[in-house]
Design a protein that fits this description.
Blueprint: H1 2-25, H2 35-42, H3 47-54, H4 56-66, E1 75-79, H5 82-87, E2 94-98, E3 105-108, H6 114-126, E4 154-158, E5 164-171, E6 174-182, E7 185-189, H7 209-223, E8 227-235, E9 238-245, H8 257-269
Antiparallel strand pairs: 1-4, 2-3, 2-4, 5-6, 5-8, 6-7, 8-9
Length: 270
Amino acid sequence: MNKYFIVCITLFFSIIILFFYLSSKWEVPIKSTSINNICQKNKYWKLEEKGLLSDKIKAKKYVVDNIPEINTAENLLITTDLNELKKFRFPDKFVMKCSSGARMFQIVVDKFDIQELLSNAKKFLNSNYAYQNYRKLTVLGLEEPQYQYNQKAIMIEEYLEDAQELRVMLINGKISYYEYIIDKKEIIYDEKWKKLDNNKKTLEKPSYIDKINSCCNKFYNDFFIDLVRVDFLISNNNIYFGEFTFTPENCRKKYENKLNELMVSKIQKY
């Protein structure tokens, strides 16, 4: 009896600790009036289309074919064969990434260990990102099901010098905010380029923002997906397409109060 009591108490406190840990990183529980709520509700809609567009190879092809004014990083190799990867003549700088999932990449700007690279590639190919790790808890809505429709491959991509990331959140085809990443920190602006966060850094409105807006509008008019974050890379003042993200931070991003209030007001209009 004592053994079961100890197990139950341990499990209870483990759940409490996990809850507070997730609360520090994510919005837990999800508020009914938040961008995360819309994201979660949209998570299971148009899955095959989202699967196509979250596949990094196919997404880049869509941009090349339909939005040629936006650059894409050159694919130097696409393969599922680790032997082919082993024999490849790598440039001095490159990016290795998996065509499916998120945060599965390796940036090389100096010497690298080929065995480590192959090990990472094998791990990427064998992962099922849609239901990996905590995403196995489907009863809690933690899965990211669009990734199950991807065709996994390893991509060797050209390295973009001094690239900075600009993310654009679209809800029902309208730009909700821009998120510029500098030194791994976010600077957030609304659709009129009014600053929304507490970051001390500020940026002038980029001259290329109209081109980015046009790309986002084209995407929405082609697919009518209600929530998507379109990620771009800016390198030497050139705009490169990054990827389409349909479940940013698994629909649980923790927003600052000012930004969340703006999102609530926008959601109520929708």
